[in-house]
Structures are given as structure tokens and as C-alpha cells.
Amino acid sequence: MSSVRDDFLTANAEFASKFEDGSLPLPPARHALVLACMDARLHVEKVLGIKNGACHCVRNAGGRASDDALRSIVISQRLLGTKEVHIVHHTDCGMLTFTNEQLAARIKADLGVELPPGRDFLPFPDLDQSVRDDIATVRGSPLVAPGTQVYGYVYEVETGRIREVK
Amino acid sequence: MSSVRDDFLTANAEFASKFEDGSLPLPPARHALVLACMDARLHVEKVLGIKNGACHCVRNAGGRASDDALRSIVISQRLLGTKEVHIVHHTDCGMLTFTNEQLAARIKADLGVELPPGRDFLPFPDLDQSVRDDIATVRGSPLVAPGTQVYGYVYEVETGRIREVK
């Protein structure tokens, strides 16, 4: 049995014993969605000072505006009233360290699975440009509401600071 | 200009002024990945007591094991050494409130976009079953390492408690 599971259950019992937010509504109070990387050093709500119930938080490898991130944004906007998207990538990101070809070769070597050519794991060679690319993807999607405000940031894992990318 | 953006920058300046974790390594210390819903009331690291640098955190609408979540899991396992997946869905989830047909009709009415039939936004009618389905999807993927430990939970937004789903 996983020690991580045991630690989650123990820590959650402590968390629940002091819980006072049981009547928060489903729609995010700040009408905003954050799209950020899954990195273990990026505790999004803490880094950005987000209160419980305030913002949707979508995370994946890289914080990319993938098709699935757009699925989440559509549900967030159409059903739960969010009107802003804030994209957060970060320094020392794993997505800067590989190419699709390298990862496909690794998967074949480790798992024996041969991927079809062109399978895109969404790595990027330039951090600021990756933020700009994802801002453009969100702004350009016909499934995102016209007029949606889209902001981009880089989080510095070395300093704890975010800086805006335009 | 968004007041959310301004609040993020202000809160982050305070966060960064007390930041002491600047030398954490990229690979997650607990070798685990959490896959959870984007819900605004589910601050994953706080609810589960996750320390900075400990676990990858992937989030999307529903906390579903989508193709993009599998992309993140592959990168997490192959490049950054995680060996466990912990899936967290929650009570009062928006994914329990709609069907694909209803959302497609809403998108057409609001945005004028006609989606191809069968576009799946991954809603679910049964919370515990959705966790079991996603456990099975992760376990069954040829891109996930054999022997990966996969756990599932439901978070109760009313009480702050998690309970395991098997």
C-alpha cells in the first residue's frame, strides 16, 4: 500500500477537522480560470493568493492550451460563468528538456509502444514564447467566448516570483 | 485591466517576499501524481497536505483520465520518475449537471458554433463510478508503466473530507 495514500488520508483528516468552507457555491467567485503547469513546485493557489472557491484551476504538463484544456475552459465559461483565463508557465520546466522524437524513443524503449509519427506531447524550446502561443490559442478558439480576457505569466521556481508575459 | 490579475501580482509579491524553496529539484519528491478536478473549492495541495515539490498535480474539468491527462502522466513517469497516480473527483461537481447534447446546444446558442456529433466533454452521471472508470483508464493505458499504483478518492466539498473509492 502506498505511503502517499496513507499520508493523504492522515493529512486530510486534520484538514477536515478544521474545515469551515462547506457552503461555498459551485461557480468560481472571481469568474476566472487559471491554466498552469503540473509542476510539483507550483502550488498555484498559494503562489497567486487564490482563496477557496475563487478560481477554476486547470493543470497539465506545461500548462498548455491543449484541446483538453479548451474542453475545461468551455465548461468553465458556458456552465459556470468564468470570463478570464490566466496562463502560468514556469522556469526549469520539464517541457524545455525534450523533443517529441526523444520522448517517443523513450516510450518505445521503456514500454515497447511504437507511437504514430507526429504524436505531439507539447514540449517547447522557449518559455516566454510558449506563454504567448497559448494565449493566442485560447484567444483564437471559436469555443472561447469573444472578449475573454487572457493573461500570461512566468513563475520563477528559484525566487517565487511571477512576471507577466505579453 | 483585470482586478484578478492585479490581485495575483499583489499576492505573489507577498508570497515571494517569504519564499524559501528556491532549490527544490524538478522531479517530485514523493514520486506521485495527483489527477483532480479543476473545481474552485478543491485546493488540492491543501486538502491532501502535499508539500512543495512533492507531487505533480494535473487538473481538468472532472479530474478525468482524458488523453491529455495521459500525456501528462506519460511525461511525469518517463521523464520525472513518478510511480503512482491518485485520482480525486468531488461532490457537487459540475460534470454531474449536463449531457454532451445539452452542452453542444448551449455552445451553438451562445457562440454560434456547431460541433460534430459525438464530441465528448466527459460529463458523468455517477460520481463513484466516474472514479472507477478513470482508475481503469489509467491502469489500462499502454502508455502508463506496468505496475503503476492507481488510487481513487471522492472529496466532499461540504465537509472537507476525502474518502477512498475502490
UniProtKB/TrEMBL annotation, chains A, B:
SUPFAM superfamilies: beta-carbonic anhydrase, cab (SSF53056). Keywords: Lyase, Metal-binding, Zinc. It catalyses: hydrogencarbonate + H(+) = CO2 + H2O. Its cofactor is Zn(2+). Its EC number is 4.2.1.1. InterPro entries: Carbonic_anhydrase (IPR001765), Carbonic_anhydrase_sf (IPR036874). Binds 1 zinc ion per subunit. The keyword Zinc applies. One of its GO terms (molecular function) is zinc ion binding. It comes from the Eukaryota. SMART domains: Pro_CA. The keyword Zinc applies. It is an enzyme of class 4 (lyase). Pfam families: Pro_CA. Zn(2+) binds at residues 37, 39, 90, 93. Reversible hydration of carbon dioxide. Belongs to the beta-class carbonic anhydrase family. This is Carbonic anhydrase. It comes from Chlamydomonas schloesseri.
